[in-house]
Design a protein that fits this description.
Layout: H1 3-15, H2 22-28, E1 32-33, H3 37-46, H4 54-60, E2 64-68, E3 74-78, H5 82-103, H6 108-121, H7 128-137, H8 148-158, E4 162-169, E5 172-177, H9 188-200, H10 205-212, H11 216-225, E6 229-232, E7 235-237, E8 251-254, H12 259-262, H13 276-279, E9 289-292, E10 295-303, E11 306-311, H14 317-337
Antiparallel strand pairs: 1-3, 2-3, 4-5, 6-7, 8-9, 9-10, 10-11
Helix pairs in contact: 1-9, 5-8, 9-11, 10-11
């Protein structure tokens, strides 16, 4: 399998199954990277959710929730799957944050007291600041400034007490009780591997390990249990995955931290080394990117309400035609969303995963 076929298949797997329902897109994508709210909405749009109001409706209806899962980062997932996914990652994420919690004064006693009190405080959706204020008023010793509130809320999320629901305001997440969810699959890791290969394949166990943040041995077992089709030596896809259709180049404007750029152990095939730092300048920041037939061909930003594309070089005529259509579609989406999109993200944000 040459690079062109590999990238075409990955592009089709990621973006070739458009669905207007955010919960279904989140399910078939294995979760949508959601540390940046506007970027998450752009990720849904790139995968078929054309209505800019649909993500907010789905969150308000309790169909999707957001919590820290793969690689310890926030992902939008179907509410029905939240608990079994949390079961895969909660202990690992809690262990990774233990030292920082101690440094912030979040002792076992403080955290336990917060867990006891929080359920009664979630009678209505509340912001993180509001929840911390209520905890402090009840004698929980947490510094409301700095990083302690985020780590305490993350601790409660990992224990299945709460999650992010619908936003209360622009860039102001609302926290709600974690839904009961549906039944867990018999092998949760294999089910996640199945979804990963359907959305990211062809890929190898090492790619799945890097995307999920799981040990390679566990990832290899899960991929084998998922019973995929080996389409090239060491590369697997979900059984029965359709081949990309013939036609013009598939072009997408991706928001910051898009899962396509975080889904593999290496970006070398999709992103030429001379341009890598224009997308990932360091610190885990992944900038909005232009992708054509699986290859990153430029970056983009919003300027004066319109997407402004900065290509890495002269684009072929077919790509230019597809890009013009995509720019118009994204401009309409952003106008309907009425929110600031995922332009160049703050350097101060926590890394999304691989640098």
């Amino acid at each position: 399998m040459d690079d062109e076929e590999l990238l075409a298949r990955r592009m089709h797997a990621q973006f070739g199954r458009p669905d207007p329902a955010p919960a279904e897109v989140a399910r078939t994508s294995g979760g949508v990277q959601a540390q940046d709210g506007p970027a998450a909405r752009l990720a849904l749009r790139a995968r078929g959710v054309a209505d800019p109001a649909a993500p907010a409706r789905a969150a308000a209806a309790g169909e999707v929730v957001t919590l820290a899962l793969m690689r310890g980062t926030l992902h939008l997932v179907p509410a029905a799957d939240a608990r079994w996914l949390l079961g895969l990652f909660a202990a690992r994420n809690l262990a990774a944050g233990a030292r920082r919690r101690r440094e912030l004064g979040l002792t076992d006693e403080v955290c336990a007291r917060a867990l006891d009190l929080l359920p009664a405080l979630l009678d209505v959706p509340r912001s993180r600041a509001a929840l911390i204020g209520l905890l402090v008023a009840r004698g929980v010793g947490v510094d409301p400034k700095g990083q302690a509130p985020a780590h305490l809320i993350g601790y409660a999320s990992a224990h299945g007490v709460l999650c992010r629901g619908a936003d209360l305001d622009a860039r102001e997440p609302g926290y709600v009780p974690l839904p009961a969810g549906g039944p867990a699959p018999a092998d949760p890791a294999a089910e996640l591997a199945r979804r990963y290969l359907a959305a990211f394949g062809p890929a190898g166990p090492g790619d799945f390990a890097a995307w999920a943040g799981l040990p390679v041995t566990e990832a290899r077992r899960a991929v084998q249990a998922a019973a995929p089709e080996e389409v090239a030596p060491g590369l697997f896809a979900a059984a029965g995955s359709p081949a990309p259709p013939a036609g013009g180049p598939a072009v997408r404007l991706l928001g910051a931290y898009d899962g396509y750029l975080l889904g593999y152990r290496s970006r070398e095939t999709m992103l030429a080394e001379p341009y890598a730092r224009r997308v990932n300048a360091g610190g885990g920041v992944i900038r909005p990117a232009v992708v054509a037939d699986g290859r990153v061909v430029g970056t983009w930003r919003r300027e004066g309400g319109e997407p402004v594309v900065e290509p890495f070089g002269v684009l072929p005529r077919g790509v230019r035609a597809g890009l013009a259509e995509e720019v118009a579609a994204v401009a309409a989406y952003l106008a309907g969303a009425g929110a600031v999109p995922a332009g160049a993200p703050s350097q101060g944000r926590r890394a999304a995963g691989k640098g």
